[in-house]
Amino acid sequence: MNEEKRTTQPKNNSVNYPAPILERIPYTVPINPEAKPYEPGYDWAAHGYDELDDNIEWGKHEGDFIIDGVLYCAHCHTRKQFVRDWNGKTFRLPIPCQCQKEALKRQEAKQNRQKALEKVQRYKELGFADKTLRECTFARDDGASPRYMQIMQRYVEHFRELERKGQGLLLYGSCGSGKTFAAAAVANALIEQGIPCLVSNFTHLFEKLTAPRAQRTMEIEDLNRFNLLVLDDLAAETDNKYIESMIFQIIDSRYRAGLPMIITTNLTKQDLLNPPTLAKKRVYDRILERCCPIEMNDTNRRAKAMQNNMLDMKKLLGI
Ligand SMILES: [Zn+2]
């Protein structure tokens, strides 16, 4: 480029530009079924935007054409360049054409999906003190107590609304009624949606929270980083004043933060309504204020499942 050309300002968009950087390329290229997107002859029409490859190339492709010195995409007919005059020079800078914009959007969506999956994986690893509870999902429910599982599923469905009000569940009743399974299934379903939940029990939390300070990996406030806290097995037999006060601190911190809990316990309704000590009363009062009590006593899940198995077998054997 000579000196004179470089200092000449263009009068308008269509004249006085230096020679186009690219020759005009024939618009139509024969279709090549083997071609990848952006390769010459790629069958755009057959594939449509949705199936474009995520590889975005920024250069010139066969079929691209030039109008007024600016490169246009052969497929979407939108600009792939913009022009800037600066210091007496004309610059052509790349911009994404419509198909490249779409491809960028798809790439971003793909990355977001990947991030969401990684997040779910992280919550799954973080969220369960007892790893076997990761397997407790609605899909694996044995169908022994459909009414309760329906309630749990509704809790998941309405979680955002209930979360705002800090409302949880208190699942009480005898052993073998599937309380732990039900509570863990709720947590698993929410984790699948990318909502952080922690499923733990008081014994495990005490160990974590009362470890020597140097080795401690969790403080009570950390529990509030989880949208839902599932506390398995709130027991009656806590004569230890220290443990009693820890239970109160955990429940109270959650209560004051207005965050929901699901608590399971073998305590009966009578136990819950008539706490033997003042410390327990403070705990139960807070729980009952925020957690909807659901008695899971009337079905003995395991026995019923066994009975159902037997019925199936009897039917099969014609007994
Ligand atoms: Zn394009």
Would you kindly provide a brief summary of this structure?
By secondary structure, the protein is an alpha/beta fold.
How would you characterize the overall build of this protein?
This protein is α/β, with parallel strands linked by helices. It folds into two domains: 3-105, no CATH class; 127-312, P-loop containing nucleotide triphosphate hydrolases (Rossmann fold), CATH 3.40.50.300. Helix content is 41%, strand content 13%. The chain has helices at 3-7, 44-47, 98-126, 146-157, 159-164, 179-192, 202-209, 241-257, 269-273, 278-290, 301-317; strands at residues 65-67, 70-72, 81-86, 89-94, 168-172, 197-201, 228-232, 261-265, 291-295. The protein has a five-stranded parallel β-sheet. The chain has a two-stranded antiparallel ribbon with strand order 1-2. Strand 7, helix 8 and strand 8 (261-265) form a beta-alpha-beta unit. Helix 4 (146-157) runs parallel beside helix 6 and helix 8 (241-257) packs parallel to helix 10 (278-290). It starts with a helix and ends with a helix. The relative contact order is 0.10. The model is unreliable at 1-27 and 48-54 (pLDDT under 50).
